[in-house]
Every structure is written in structure tokens, then in C-alpha cells.
Amino acid sequence: MGILDLGSGDEKVKKVDCRKFLTPGYTTSGHVELFTVSVERGMSWEEATHAWAEQNGPDDGFYVQMRNNKKTAILVKEVNNKKRLFLVHRPNTGRQLKLETYADIKKKFKKVLSEDAKQHWTDQYKLSAKICAHAYWRGNCKKASVGLQCEVGLRCRSYYVLCGSVLSVWNELEEVLTPVSGTNVKVQIVRLRTEDGQRIVGLIIPANCVSPLCNKLSTSDQCQQLAVQELQKLQQLHPQSLSHAPNT
Questions:
Q1: For 14-113, where are the alpha helices, taking DSSP H only?
Q2: How far apart are CA 179 and CA 157, in angstroms?
Q3: Where is the SBNO alpha/beta domain (predicted)?
Q4: Which of 119, 156, 172, 243 is spaced 20 to 30 Å from 232 by Cα?
Q5: CB 150 within 8 A of CB 131
Q6: Angle 156-88-140 from CA coordinates, rounded to 5°
Q7: Can you tell me the distance from the alpha carbon of 106 to that of 88, in angstroms, rounded to the nearest whole number?
């Protein structure tokens, strides 16, 4: 599993919350932080029309597709004339990494004027903030129907990232993640760069694991705070004898 980079491309990354927990075996300098970040991708209609104004290829422009009695629009730009490869932008996911051939685009989409694409573009842009691709196209999502979160095709997504002295709470992590990923626990490393320039590197915690993990970390944090307070009291009473005492 590779490293996921967010914020280095077109995504807008914002830090929503940060919780700090003291970790076992350390003083107040040893801790982990659980960040909640929101990542917004996609392309607004204003951004799309700005990009379209800079295009000049005969087949560049807006295309519309009819699917399940619903229309959606894309914006394409030719980037390889010899192979007829096009860069595709979508309202909900923004720039598509995979280039599309003109033949594939023509199979699914029909070229239209910008005014004919506007409503379909803005509809999907707005709805994709909270509705996954399954619900958008089919009207329902199997995961959402049973109370689970589905982020397929979402324009706005939330990530929970654990940073800091992660190895010191690895046992707690395994206890929380094992029921989800099985005995062979695998975690996704992520590198984030927020809009204000902060860089965050850590492990992605699944949304359904955040609450139980916080409960375990809170218990450990409270125990460690008590241990630190006791050590501070002893240091005040016997400053010389404890000046070289190991950290608890």
C-alpha cells in the first residue's frame, strides 16, 4: 500500500479538528494527535468556464452524457494530438488522472454548447458534496442504506489522521483495527498539505474506528496525566533525588 498524497494537486485540504493524547511511557512531550481534515476536490462552474476559455482545439469543450435518465457534463481538452488523448475534468472529482481517447469519449458523450452543459454541471457539483456516485446515479446506495458511509464520487470527503508517537499506541490501534481489517492489520500512510501550508504525515483511521480509538486513547491519556502529576509532585518534594529519574 503506497503513500497517499493530498493537497499537492487540485484538492483543497482544511484542518477541521485536532485532538491530542499523551502516550504511555513518556512525559508531556510524548503524544499522538488525531486530525480531522476535510478534502474538497471537484471543479465549480466558474472554474470550468475559465478553463474552457483557454481551450482552442476543435474537439475541446463540454460534453454531456445521458445515464439512468440523468445527464452529467464533462470538460475535455486534447493533450496528445497524435494519439488523440484528452484530459477530462468532472464537476465532482475535478481533473481525471487517466487520459481518455476521443473514440471512448464519443461513445458515451455528445458535444454541447456551454450553456447546455451548465445546469447538468452545477447540479452534480452541488449534490456531490454529500451524495455518493451510487445514490446520484441510481437514487440509492447499498452502504448508505444500512448506515455505512460511502465516499465513492463524493466531492467533499473527511479523513482522520493519526500522527506523532504512533508506535507507542500500536497495541490500541491493533485492537481497534483488527475487527475491520482482520488479523493482518494494514494501514494507509497519508501526506497532507493544508491550505494554510501545514504539513501532516500520519496514518488514516477508518471513520468507524475513530470513536473506539478515541476511547482507548482517552483512557491512556488520563492515566498518563495522573502519572505525570505524581512525578511532578515527587520532584517538588525531592528535586535532587529525582532529577535523573527515568520518564514514566
A1: 45-53, 102-108
A2: 23
A3: 43-155
A4: 172
A5: no
A6: 45
A7: 13
Q: How far apart are CA 245 and CA 228, in angstroms?
A: 13
- Give the separation between CA 75 and CA 115, rounded to whole angstroms: 13
Question: How many residues would you count in the chain?
Answer: 248
Return d(Cα 60, Cα 204) in angstroms, integer.
38
Per-residue model confidence as pLDDT tens digits over 1-56: 578 888 877 889 999 999 999 887 655 568 899 999 999 999 999 999 999 999 98
Q: Cα–Cα–Cα angle for 92, 139, 66, nearest 5°?
A: 60
pLDDT surpassing 80 at residue 182: no
Domain boundaries, the chain: 4-39+157-237, 45-144
Give 140: exposed, middle or buried? Use CB within 10 Å, 0-12, 13-18, 19+.
exposed
Q: Identify whether the C-beta of residue 15 lies closer than 8 Å to the C-beta of residue 198.
A: yes
- What digits encode the pLDDT tens for the residues 86-135? 999 999 999 998 999 999 999 999 999 999 999 999 999 999 999 999 99
Backbone angles phi, psi at 134, to 5 degrees: -60, -50
State pTM to two decimals.
0.73
Q: Using CA of residue 148, residue 164, residue 18, residue 133, what is the dihedral sign? A: negative
